[in-house]
Design goal:
This protein is α+β, with helices and mostly antiparallel strands and 768 residues long. Helix content is 25%, strand content 22%.
């Protein structure tokens, strides 16, 4: 609308809550709607109309309302020319539109009319949000209006738009100001509302008169529907136009988000639902508005309700929005290029599903009238795949209208092939997000780029191994022991390398249900996985059993998990985002592996060249300080971003094959020692308890464990030969270890030999 309108309807609303700059921020219902018609051409005013709306009250509130209704009616003689009462908001809006149309037709000087309000709140924050929450159809006249503050600013550019109000605009124009200043947190009285309308009409007449001769054109627009669309990652999104909504129902769609922010203009494709690591909605969404003004109004809806849930609204950045909604795939752009399409997401498809099977799935059955044809046939189906072309089991389907989409959603959890299919209403942003996630997720997370690009690259993680000579056991009983694992492996126990069983612990130091086993050859590992996959393992401790999944893997992947990394998904069709690993061994000293020592890394550049190029940081990168024996080394968190850490159990000598990017340590030659263990319980299980106390610390075959009394008055004292690989710090850990309940008594002197078997070295516990 570019020409001057014939009439302006100056509108003012009041709620049962706050007023002024906080109008509509508390979700209170509209109780008063006032307006006065202005003849723009003849500069004449119509009568002041007041429309009182009864709020929706509960039974107790209705009883209290009836008691004070008569006194309230007598007291609130607002001074309006025409006062009407409506039962609810829907009746009030329809009555307002009817009376306004009749008044314009009776004037006879024109037909075009547009609303005019003091600021944005009366239309955008009061009428439209309440109507959307009550599913009320708003008349067309409320989708365009003039903001009298912006029209005033065109003639007074120096004025602050946020600080403008009816009082200071009237003072600037030299008009009498009879409007009383009201506390925004108090309820506005009808008398003040009438004064506001009368003052606003005086301002309109002043702007129409000399010397301003203002032309009311290009009114504010309120979007009547949300437009879906795509967003490129190369597009620039302002940080002042994006918000984050939290607490959404999991089944909500972009249309539900647009309904929650009804009255505010969301950019095309500006509602993006966020997904969690498993690809499911996490109750958050990023919303992009057309301007900062609309973003600020959206922030005022913090903790407003969507159904029975309140929604939290916070500021967000443009980068946050692009990470969720941005995409670069031309296939997705072609799929989403059709207008007025409803998207439905299919999850759980068979990996062999084809376009024809999906079309047949949505075809109507015999005798049913509900139609849900796929829009565009084969072109209306988009399968989600990994970068190597393997299907993920997800697909997106287009439907031409809401009715067809709703009929399609009724097939939720119906069978396609041998699998039931989950159906959800989706969005264009979710399509981009799912495609971005699957197209960029590697099998094993790669390390970050080197800090100094000019230096020779040094990989932080070993390359993916092709020799799959290890086994990964998943789903072990939490009470499973090494004996249970060896019993489960059966005949394949002879193919285990010495010290080749490694259990993964969680953050509490307890078994996580995962285990890695080093085998002698890839052939035996593959054979073991084929024979033992999903067989039942029984635990002797807890008398419980579970089926165990067995997969072949490489030593590099095993080392990555044992060092705290995680495999994004297994080498089967089952996806797994992580394994739940333990804290760093340095934070849990009893679970720490034995000491490792490393030779000094060779310098890439000379010390003089490094000092000249990168002083002093370059010297630290190019010449790592050699570590003395007796201290375990773990790469820093800044150098290894995927270090959740894992403890090694039962014996670290073979776990893992590599630590970070350093080679496995050779045999250590630090001298042995004698460890004193006072406070042993009596009676006790003897050497077996001592073995459990020192389990996880290295000892060689020539070491001997001695359990003997050292004092006649205190027999519960023990001398233990210190293995060569133990450090003084690890010895001090044993001094605080608990073994049963302390008591007195003697114990026999006993040595514990190591027995060599074809499958490796095992402790002979027959003498215990």
């Amino acid at each position: 609308m570019t020409a001057q309108v014939d009439y302006l309807a100056v509108v003012f609303t009041a709620t049962s809550g706050t007023s002024g700059e906080w109008l509509g921020s508390d979700e209170k219902e509209t109780v008063q709607l006032m307006w006065q018609l202005v003849d723009v051409k003849n500069k004449k005013l119509g009568k002041v109309n007041e429309l009182r709306i009864k709020p929706d009250l509960s039974d107790s509130e209705e009883k209290q309302e009836d008691e004070v209704e008569e006194s309230t009616t007598e007291q609130h003689n607002s001074g309006a020319d025409c006062v009407t009462t409506a039962e609810n908001l829907e009746t009030a809006l329809n009555l307002f539109h009817l009376q306004l149309t009749n008044e314009v037709n009776s004037a006879g000087t024109g037909t075009s009319v547009c609303l005019c309000a003091d600021g944005q709140l009366h239309i955008r924050q009061v009428i439209h949000p309440e109507a959307a929450s009550k599913n009320i159809l708003v008349p067309d006249c409320f989708y365009s209006f003039f903001d009298i503050r912006k029209e005033f600013k065109k003639h007074f550019p120096a004025s602050d738009l946020k600080a403008l109000n009816v009082q200071n605009m009237a003072e600037s124009l030299g008009l009498p100001n009879e409007v009383a200043i009201v506390d925004p947190e108090s309820i506005l009285s009808p008398e003040v509302a009438v004064q506001q309308v009368q003052t606003m009409t005086s301002i309109v007449l002043a702007l129409l008169s000399e010397p301003f001769c203002h032309i009311f054109s290009n009114p504010e627009k309120v979007n009547d529907k949300f437009e879906s669309g795509t967003c490129s990652k190369m597009e620039k999104v302002s940080d002042n136009t994006v918000i984050r909504a939290r607490g959404l129902p999991w089944q909500s769609s972009d249309q539900d988000i647009a309904r929650f922010f009804r009255g505010l203009n969301i950019a095309k494709g500006g509602a993006a639902l966020c997904l969690n690591a498993q690809g499911r909605r996490n109750g958050e969404a990023l919303v992009r508005f057309v301007s900062e003004e609309h973003r600020d109004l959206a922030l005022q809806r913090h903790k407003h309700h969507m159904g029975n849930r309140y929604i939290e609204v916070y500021k967000a950045t443009g980068d946050d929005f692009l990470k969720i909604a941005g995409g670069t795939s031309s296939e997705v752009a072609m799929f989403l290029s059709r207008d007025d399409q409803i998207i439905v997401r299919m999850r759980g498809l068979p990996f062999t599903a084809t376009h024809e099977q999906v079309l047949t799935f949505f075809s109507p059955e015999d005798g049913l009238k509900e139609m849900c044809p796929v829009s565009g046939g084969r072109e209306g189906i988009l399968f989600v795949r990994y970068p190597d072309g393997r299907p993920t089991g997800d697909a997106f389907v287009l439907f031409s209208c809401e009715e067809h989409a709703q009929n399609a959603l009724k097939k939720h959890k119906e069978i396609l092939g041998r699998r039931y299919i989950e159906l959800f209403k989706s969005t264009a942003a979710e399509v981009q997000q799912v495609l971005n996630r699957y197209s960029s997720a590697p099998l094993i997370p790669v390390a970050p780029a080197p800090l100094v690009s000019v230096l020779p690259a040094m990989p932080l993680l070993p390359p993916p191994g092709t020799l799959r000579d290890c086994l990964r056991l998943r789903g072990l009983p939490y009470t499973a022991s090494i004996d249970d694992i060896l019993t489960f492996l059966g005949e394949f126990i002879h193919d285990i390398r010495p010290h080749g069983v490694h259990m993964v612990l969680n953050q509490q130091g307890r078994p996580s249900g995962d285990c890695f086993i080093q085998m002698t050859s890839p052939e035996r590992a593959l054979m073991a996985s084929q024979r033992l996959h999903k067989h039942v393992m029984t635990s002797q401790r807890g008398q419980n059993s579970r089926y165990v999944e067995v997969f072949p893997c490489s030593a590099e992947e095993m080392g990555l998990v044992l060092m705290g990394g995680s495999l994004s998904h297994t080498h089967t069709r089952t996806q797994r985002s992580g394994t739940g690993l333990s804290p760093p061994p340095c934070k849990s000293r009893r679970l720490s592996p034995p000491s490792y020592s490393f030779a000094a890394a060779p310098q890439v550049l000379t010390a003089e060249a490094a000092a000249a190029l990168y002083p002093p940081f370059g010297q630290m990168l190019l010449a790592p300080r050699p570590l003395p024996p007796g201290h375990g080394y773990y790469p820093a968190a800044s150098a290894q971003l995927y270090m959740n850490y894992s403890a090694y159990y039962p014996s670290p000598p073979g776990s893992p094959t590599t630590i970070g990017f350093f080679p496995s340590p050779s045999a250590l030659t630090s001298p042995g020692g004698l460890v004193r263990m006072p406070g042993l319980p009596y009676p006790t299980n003897g050497v077996k308890d001592i073995i459990n106390a020192v389990q996880g610390y290295q000892y060689s075959a020539e070491d001997a464990l001695v359990h003997a009394p050292v004092h006649t008055q205190d027999p519960s004292r023990t001398l233990l030969t210190q293995p060569k690989e133990w450090s003084p710090g690890e010895v001090s850990v044993l001094s605080s270890s608990l073994i049963g309940q302390s008591n007195g008594g003697d114990a026999p002197v006993m040595s514990l030999p190591l027995v060599n078997k074809p499958a490796g070295q095992f402790l002979d516990l027959s003498l215990l």
